[in-house]
From TrEMBL, chain A:
<feature type="transmembrane region" description="Helical">
    <location>
        <begin position="283"/>
        <end position="304"/>
    </location>
</feature>
<keyword id="KW-1003">Cell membrane</keyword>
<keyword id="KW-1133">Transmembrane helix</keyword>
<feature type="transmembrane region" description="Helical">
    <location>
        <begin position="30"/>
        <end position="46"/>
    </location>
</feature>
<dbReference type="GO" id="GO:0015658">
    <property type="term" value="F:branched-chain amino acid transmembrane transporter activity"/>
</dbReference>
<dbReference type="InterPro" id="IPR043428">
    <property type="entry name" value="LivM-like"/>
</dbReference>
<dbReference type="Pfam" id="PF02653">
    <property type="entry name" value="BPD_transp_2"/>
</dbReference>
<feature type="transmembrane region" description="Helical">
    <location>
        <begin position="154"/>
        <end position="174"/>
    </location>
</feature>
<dbReference type="GO" id="GO:0005886">
    <property type="term" value="C:plasma membrane"/>
</dbReference>
From TrEMBL, chain B:
<feature type="domain" description="ABC transporter">
    <location>
        <begin position="2"/>
        <end position="234"/>
    </location>
</feature>
<dbReference type="InterPro" id="IPR032823">
    <property type="entry name" value="BCA_ABC_TP_C"/>
</dbReference>
<keyword id="KW-0067">ATP-binding</keyword>
<keyword id="KW-0813">Transport</keyword>
<dbReference type="InterPro" id="IPR003593">
    <property type="entry name" value="AAA+_ATPase"/>
</dbReference>
<protein>
    <submittedName>
        <fullName>ABC transporter ATP-binding protein</fullName>
    </submittedName>
</protein>
<keyword id="KW-0547">Nucleotide-binding</keyword>
<dbReference type="GO" id="GO:0016887">
    <property type="term" value="F:ATP hydrolysis activity"/>
</dbReference>
<dbReference type="GO" id="GO:0005886">
    <property type="term" value="C:plasma membrane"/>
</dbReference>
């Protein structure tokens, strides 16, 4: 496991940068795919551990982006301080979603969708602060650190890949903890867990806060990469749907599945399907996802993990 | 000491439990009996926090639990089982007990978990998936083991013997008696089998149409003509 981890880190921090340095197009795609990956991990944490299917993660993404951009442009905060503050802003916004935690299944999903829409309306209506539907432009980019330009494609890649890895690590730590075990237990038997002393509402609230923080952080990072925000983009439902697609494709019940699913699906879509079908390439993506759900519902990661056992069984 | 003061539970226009009052100590095993629909499980739900009483109070060791949520009652020493076993899905038997101990008793003590599994004959099933790989009798034992892992002072057992054949029932009854004596846990048990109640319980409370019909020793209660009538739905000799 440790060996595999070292290889993966070497690949992400040495091989990929060396191979792609100078190839801004591919690096841009990779950064975008990793932004989706961050959102996918954030979504999977709430969906898998918290047992809550969210259709409103765009709210955290948008709030994080706007909060960070405003803190930098209006209050003059350093970008690297404003980005985590964007995560905190998303957590504060998620406090308003707490009443929805008493709901379950489709009711929760719909309530969260409605909340996300409210924040989009707020961003549009508070035009004196947010620039309204015209949005915010000239958002400062990532700074230089120790002479290394983080606002370059390569710099942004290093930042976002680090964020996604930290998200996966946090997700894994929570999942392996007693809290993670209790959260898994709550999925189909909430009363059974509450009756033995598990404060299910508190655990779900924490998952919502952690998930919101991750979503807000990624949204804030994205705002300083693209240097522009407007409500239709920042709160676009794509920021809710793409992470779900990616997490399901990669295997939302695994720690690395959502992130790997996001990178694979985004890059394959942009580099392969788009070449085959420049308009409507999402149709092929949809068909691939449908096939995945039908034939490998546990996702890409489980598909690879199952192989050795199947092979052993075949030999037995 | 568990004390119910005028506990009333209503579902819309239906009063499922009406003005029920009684007290029991942790040194007792009390049988809660009554015909189907008498309000026994609803009363259990009110005590354990699954439903909020429309009136009255639930006190345990001097603490008013009436408005406390389900999980908080476990922290105060009230454990319960469900009529239909509710193992925690996706978890093994050991993990089920671990969650119960960690969150109910507020500590993790693997030695104690092994003791509980040994006591409830679950050691061989420790690594099995609780939801998919246990037989009914094992699931029933897991229900009690989970509740025990929370280190309760009082256990509410909802028809934990239902569905077991005669030998299994006797075995389980002996185990509950042993648990009561060894761990000094008070037991409030819903049970239909009069023979089991008579052999296990010090005291019996009979509910009928949500109200207390009789309260006393098993011998006295099961000879009460009103109780016999409520069970048979007719005369004493029916």
């Amino acid at each position: 496991m440790q060996k595999r981890m070292i290889v993966a880190l070497a690949l992400l921090y040495v091989v990929v940068p060396v191979l792609l340095n100078g190839n801004n197009y591919i690096l841009s795609l990779l950064v975008s795919s990793l932004i989706v990956a961050g959102m996918a991990v954030s979504w999977a944490l709430l969906g898998n551990l918290g047992g809550m299917v969210s259709f409103g993660h765009a709210a955290f993404f948008g709030i994080g982006g706007y909060a960070s951009a405003l803190l930098v442009t209006k209050l003059g905060l350093p970008v690297m301080v404003a980005i985590p503050a964007g995560g905190v802003a998303a957590v504060l916004a998620s406090v308003f979603m707490l009443p929805a935690l008493r709901l379950s299944g489709p009711y929760f999903a719909l309530a969260i969708l409605a909340y996300a829409h409210i924040f989009k309306i707020l961003a549009t209506e508070f035009s004196s602060l947010t620039g309204g539907s015209a949005g915010l432009s000239s958002i400062p980019g990532l700074p230089d650190i120790f002479g290394f330009n983080l606002s370059s494609r390569l710099g942004a890649y290093f930042v976002v890949v680090s964020l996604v890895l930290v998200f996966c690590w946090v997700y894994g730590r929570i999942r392996r903890s007693d809290y993670g075990t209790a959260l898994r237990a709550m999925h189909d038997s909430e009363d059974a867990t509450r009756v033995v002393g598990v404060n299910s509402l508190m655990l779900k609230s924490w998952m919502l806060f952690v998930s919101a923080f991750m979503g807000g952080l990624i949204g804030a990072f994205n705002a300083h990469v693209i240097n522009f925000l407007e409500p239709d983009y920042a709160f676009n439902s794509a920021w809710s749907v793409l992470p779900i697609v990616a997490a399901i494709f990669g295997g939302y019940r695994t720690v690395y599945g959502p992130a790997i699913g996001a990178v694979v699906i985004y890059l394959v879509d942009q580099l392969v399907f788009k070449e085959i079908m420049s308009t409507g390439h999402q149709l092929i993506l949809g068909a691939v996802l449908a096939g995945m759900i039908l034939f490998a519902p546990d996702g890409l990661m489980r598909l690879f993990k199952r192989k050795p056992r199947e092979a052993r069984n075949a030999h037995a | 000491m568990l004390t119910l003061e005028n506990v009333t539970v209503r579902f819309g226009g239906l009063t499922a439990v009406k003005d029920v009052s009684f007290s029991m100590g942790t040194d007792q095993v009390l049988g809660l009996v009554g015909p189907n629909g008498a309000g026994k499980t609803t009363l259990f739900n009110a005590i354990s926090g699954l439903v909020r009483p429309g009136g009255g109070r639930v006190m345990f060791n001097g603490v008013d639990l009436t408005r406390k949520p389900l999980h908080a009652r476990a922290h105060h020493g009230l454990g319960r089982t469900f009529q239909i076993p509710q193992p925690m899905h996706e978890l093994t038997v050991r993990e089920n007990l671990l969650v119960a101990q960690r969150f109910g008793a507020g500590k993790v003590d693997h030695k104690r978990l092994d003791e509980i599994m040994d006591f409830m004959d679950l050691t061989d099933q420790a690594d099995r998936n609780a939801a998919t790989e246990l037989a009914l009798q094992e699931l029933k034992r897991l229900e009690v083991a989970k509740a025990m892992a929370t280190e309760p002072r009082m256990l509410l057992l909802d028809e934990v013997l239902a569905g077991l054949e005669t030998n299994g029932k006797r075995h389980f009854t002996a185990r509950l008696q042993d648990m009561h004596k060894r761990f000094k846990i008070g037991i409030l048990i819903i049970e239909h089998d009069i023979e089991t109640v008579s052999s296990l319980c010090h005291r019996v409370v009979v509910l009928n149409f949500g109200e207390i019909l009789a309260d006393g020793t098993p011998d006295a209660v099961f000879r009460d003509p009103e109780v016999v009538r409520s069970y048979t739905g007719g005369g004493e000799d029916a």
